[in-house]
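Kindly go through the entry underneath: sequence plus fold tokens. Please state briefly how this chain folds according to its tokens.
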Amino acid sequence: MQHEDKRPHWQQAGRTYCAVIDGRVQALVYWDEPQPAHDERGEPLVADGGWFWFPTDDPTPWQLPNAPALRSDMSFEELVEATEAALDQAQHAIAEHFAGEAG
């Protein structure tokens, strides 16, 4: 399926954003809160949160490492700006993914 030069239309479903391309959901983008976890020795640690995305044809999540974090102390406007920045980064990652499939 060709996706080059196609910008997704974003649909929000709760805390998840669906990238709709050619009328189909092609990828999902979501914010994941930091989670308690354990290292190899069983010591407690906090796993990093962040923005992640995955194409609907592959459930392996990919982190968007430069997307701004969402924090509880942010104003509504700051949350909107951070989310828009994350979706912009996701758009580029999604385009690269599908360009690699086409090539």
About this structure: Helices lie at 76-102. Residues 27 and 58 are 9 Å apart (CA to CA). The chain has one domain: 9-102. The beta strands are 9-13, 16-21, 24-32, 35-38, 44-47, 50-55, 62-63.
